[in-house]
Amino acid sequence: MRILVTGGAGFIGSHVVDALRVAGHDVASLDNLHPAAHGRDATAPEGVRVGDVGDPGAVAAALRNVDAVVHHAAMVGMGVDLDDLPHYVSNNDLGTAVLLAGMATAGVRRLVLASSMVVYGEGGYACDHHGFVHPAPRRPSDLAAGRYDPTCPACGRTLSPRLVTEDAPLRPRSVYAATKVAQEHLAGVWARELDARAIALRYHNVYGPRMPRDTPYAGVAAIFRSSLEAGRAPEVFEDGAQRRDFIHVHDVARANVAAVAAISGESPAGLTAYNIASGRPRTVGELAAGLAEAIGGPRPVITGRFRAGDVRHITASADKARLHLDFLATTPFEHGVREFARAPLRT
Hints:
Blueprint: E1 2-6, H1 11-22, E2 26-31, H2 35-38, E3 48-50, H3 56-62, E4 68-71, H4 85-106, E5 110-116, E6 124-127, E7 131-133, H5 140-144, E8 160-162, H6 175-194, E9 197-203, E10 205-207, H7 220-229, E11 235-236, E12 243-244, E13 246-248, H8 249-264, E14 270-276, E15 282-283, H9 284-295, E16 301-302, H10 319-324, H11 333-340
Parallel strand pairs: 1-2, 1-4, 2-3, 4-5, 5-9, 9-14, 10-13, 11-16
Antiparallel strand pairs: 6-7, 6-8, 12-15
């Protein structure tokens, strides 16, 4: 198939392009080379068309003779402050709307959407007395006092984290998260209206070669590594016990290949979401310590600082992707972290 990858010059998108080509697909790329992801002096890699998904003309040109779209073009991360809100909405939601409209016009009826675990907000939790519950947002006064774990809204006891499944409610807690929820909703409407096939891949914490270096939009793995390379100890927020699911970018690329195969077969029309995760939770502190050991740098410093938009624990069940996409992450955490400690990053 001929596949258009939007954001195909980016961190994850470039690996997806490589994996799709290895799988035998004819791949085209569209990327606006946004400075937050590529730096201010970036040039387009060979085979990448420079253009924005928010530009109907650029989208129409990129969609010629295309059979499917893998949509990765987006602003990612927590951002700096609410001044970023228009940029996130414009790039992520308006851009997705323009792309979907262009696909409708061009007759392209297959879509893989790069979504995120942030759509869930806080992860899954259980109370010893009240079973599965959804905690209220953590209070700044509790965070300032070092009480980081969510509590039961009924009895106030500390909750235990559980794996999130794809049928969990969507409760975004940041601007970026809200735009990813909107992207899924837009893609769902598009698929229903056109009787088209769409898959949303809800990535958990992706790391690996080609991550952008330390910017306000970079992932925590790149931020820790940048500190270590500068001879500074990585600074870990809260107490470092926040649970995440770190998945290597090579595994994520394979998940995209599996999703393309699914939308090309007899999968039902409409939008289906899948968690793309390793299924093996780790803590943020473990990631920082593993990188420090691999690089030979100073040990992490637990700062106790916190950000209002952060969640405490978010880890996922990977069962649905294993059962329906035949996808299973295979890169061990220890191996992936050692490789990432020396892997090339984007400047």
